[in-house]
Design a protein that fits this description.
The protein is of the alpha/beta class. The strands form six sheets. An eight-stranded mixed beta sheet has the order 1-2-11-20-17-16-14-15, sandwiched between helices. The protein has a six-stranded parallel beta sheet with strand order 3-10-7-6-4-5, with helices on both faces. Strands 8-9 form a two-stranded antiparallel sheet. Strand 6, helix 5 (125-136) and strand 7 (142-147) form a beta-alpha-beta unit. Helix 9 (206-212) packs antiparallel against helix 10 and helix 19 packs across helix 20 (533-550). Bound molecules: nicotinamide-adenine-dinucleotide.
């Protein structure tokens, strides 16, 4: 359960805190020992699958056959919509990330949605890849792991908090369900691996030690030892959930996260000291405004990932970090330049970035720093999420989208092929430092995209902010550092943080900040990124709003007011990709699976108010067709 503590409003003293988000993210853990697990009439496994309708199965040959028989029976009884078997080839890949990408692709192709599950049997490297994939797929998909021997159970508990992958990668888990196939476990002959596991357990639990003492490890005696071992596992599970000293599970308790969004000025400025001749000595510089320096790790290192949109930004970051190093604030740094494009948010780039951190032997006192737009911030956040199970990072957004949206939430993700944001998670930065000076060089088209995100959050949550944007969008476009422009920016950040604070880890899939994004993401990817993110979101908003009018949920005048604003800002409200058949198919397949099985769109119900539109509310193929016709006109 996520519990949000507060969002604070801008303070006048330095630093200017635009907002703070604090939340607690508690992991969910379950361990069960089930007799007759795969008996056709036993519903226990379905119970652990918690109502999912579709599963992807990863299992070795003998277990697969038993699972298939069981799942066929459940499907025939109408308790499951379907299942599919993971293609083995997808799990054997050159790198852990490509194996994860292959399995994620298989999951999506087989129609696995955000409320469905990956069902794994055993504990080999393929199973670990599958568990890691589930933890990253659409930022969290349920994995249920069945084990049928004690060594596998011990291994499952050891990797409960974080799944190690080859190389420097590790994936933290939120939801862990381990189910013991008791009959198989009790019936098997004792292997040397099991004997070693029992001996290890005996050193930690007197019950196991007593049962093991002088036992022949066969027949009744073996069963008694195994039962003692299972009982011990339950005791450790219970402790592991609540203490930090558990020896097996590595303290998989909840995590508190807290970070703030600050306004800073001249974030990379270094002030030069005059040399003896009164000249500025550029080599002898001091960190300028200081706020960034305060977040940098004392004595640690920095890996700065910089969007090299201009040579100057890279020089500024280098000069700044050099001056921090010269003054012994940090021990060292490296700069990883990227030239931002959709090709940046890929697994290939993620792999290179994580391996760079590894080559630097990045430790817990080192920090990743992302300097760029949403693309770079997402890439850096995902690298921070996956490097050895989580490393600290800072965000310095340089675009309006970065400042009011991508920079301030917990979400991070990378694309897989044409699928946007397919793999990722929730990883809070140490802080997000917004310096509006960056907006001076931002192309107008990108400012328009930022305004699309501001209009999005205003339209469904904050009528006053919407009015402010109506009055001052011109100023945001042309005088980007004007007081009006700042008010719009601060209002959008506050509105966004307000929404995020109620649902920071998206336990609730229906979120108002998704307004325009359901179709937006699909249009952006399908257009081959011809449409920028904000442009695609603008079209998505127009579609959802028009559908709300046709469903009788929104007055036409409010819809027209929003369309007028989008047009005045210079954003598109229709695209040739908006064909009714395509939009309907996306709704019934992609959006439905992303939204937990219900095709649903966020739609405004007034200026500054939003709700959700689904087929029962009049979202039909016919209304989609009519909406396209209206918007095309
Ligand atoms: N994680 C989230 O919650 C979230 C939210 C919104 C968007 N996003 C993601 O963010 C991405 C879009 O981000 P974006 O709109 O910031 O685009 P972007 O990061 O791709 O940047 C757009 C362009 O502006 C350039 N640029 C960046 N800063 C500049 C500056 N100060 N001056 C001149 N040029 C500059 C970049 O090089 C790039 O060419 C998408 O991938 C989207 O999925 C993520």
């Amino acid at each position: 359960m996520a519990r949000v503590i507060r969002v604070v409003t801008p303070a006048s003293s330095s630093p200017v805190v635009l907002g703070r988000l604090a939340a607690h993210n508690e992991a969910e853990w379950r361990l069960a020992v089930v007799p007759g697990l795969l008996d056709p009439d036993n519903r226990a496994l379905l119970g652990h699958l918690a109502g999912v309708r579709r599963v992807l199965v990863v299992a070795g040959a003998p277990e697969r056959e038993r699972l298939v028989r069981y799942l066929d029976r459940q499907q025939a009884g109408g308790l499951l919509d379907g299942y599919c078997l993971a293609p083995e080839a997808k799990l054997v890949a050159a790198s852990p990330l490509s194996a994860i990408a292959g399995l994620a692709d298989a999951a999506v192709t087989s129609g696995l949605g955000r409320r469905d599950a990956i069902l794994v049997y055993g504990h080999d490297s393929e199973v670990l890849t599958a568990v890691a994939t589930a933890a990253l797929l659409r930022r969290q998909t349920m994995a249920v792991q069945v084990v049928s021997d004690l060594p596998a159970l011990l291994a499952a508990v050891r990797t409960a908090a974080s799944v190690p992958l080859p190389g420097p990668f590790a994936v933290r888990r939120q939801q862990v369900t381990v189910v013991v196939d008791e009959d198989v476990l009790l019936a098997a002959a004792c292997t040397p691996e099991e004997e070693a596991a029992l001996e290890e357990l005996a050193t930690m639990d007197s019950g196991v030690a007593e049962a093991l003492l002088g036992s022949p490890l066969e027949g009744e005696a073996l069963t008694a030892v195994r039962r003692a071992a299972l009982a011990a596992m339950f005791r450790w599970f219970g402790r592991a959930w609540t203490t930090r000293s558990a020896r097996y599970a590595g303290a998989p308790t909840g995590r508190a996260v807290s970070y703030q969004v600050e306004a800073v000025h001249d974030v990379f400025r270094t002030t030069s000291r005059p040399d003896g001749r009164g000249q500025r000595d550029t080599a002898d510089t001091e960190p300028g405004a200081g706020r960034l320096a305060e977040w940098l790790p004392r004595g640690g290192r920095v890996l700065a990932v910089v969007d090299a949109y201009a040579p100057r930004i890279v020089d500024d970051v280098r000069r700044y970090l050099s001056s921090c190093q010269e003054r012994s604030l940090i021990a060292g740094f490296e700069i990883f330049c990227v030239e931002s494009s959709p090709a940046v948010k890929t697994l290939g780039r993620l792999d290179r970035l994580v391996r760079t951190a590894d080559r630097m032997d990045f430790g817990p006192t080192d920090v990743l720093l992302g300097v760029g737009g949403g693309t770079v911030l997402d890439l850096v956040g995902t690298a921070a999420l996956m490097y050895r199970g989580g490393t600290p990072y800072l965000r310095v957004p340089t675009t309006l989208v970065g400042m009011i949206d991508a920079g301030i939430g917990l979400k991070v993700a990378v694309n897989v092929g044409t699928r946007k944001n397919l793999l990722g998670g929730y990883h809070a930065p140490l802080a997000c430092l917004c310096d509006p000076a960056f907006l001076a060089t931002l192309p107008s088209q990108e400012v328009r995209c930022g305004l699309a995100e501001a209009i999005k959050i205003a339209m469904v949550t904050d009528g006053e902010l919407f009015g402010l944007i109506e009055r001052h969008h011109e100023s945001v476009l042309t005088r980007r550092q004007s007081p009006e422009s700042r008010r719009v920016m601060e209002g959008a950040i506050a509105a966004m943080l307000g929404e995020l604070s109620t649902n920071p880890f998206e336990r609730e899939l229906r979120r108002l900040p998704d307004f325009g994004h359901e179709y937006g993401h699909l249009l952006e990817a399908e257009s081959g990124y011809r449409l920028r993110h904000g442009e695609a979101v603008s079209i998505g908003m127009a579609l959802a709003s028009q559908l709300a009018v046709l469903a009788g949920r929104l007055s036409p005048s409010v819809h027209e007011r929003m369309i007028r604003l989008l047009n005045r800002v210079g954003l598109p409200t229709f695209d040739r990709l908006c064909e009714p058949e395509r939009l309907w198919r996306w709704l019934c397949v992609d959006i439905k699976s992303h939204k937990g099985g219900v095709p649903v769109l966020v739609a405004p119900t007034g200026t500054g108010a939003g709700g959700f539109l689904e087929p029962d509310d009049g979202l039909t193929f016919d209304t989609v067709r009519r909406a396209c016709a209206e918007l095309r006109a």
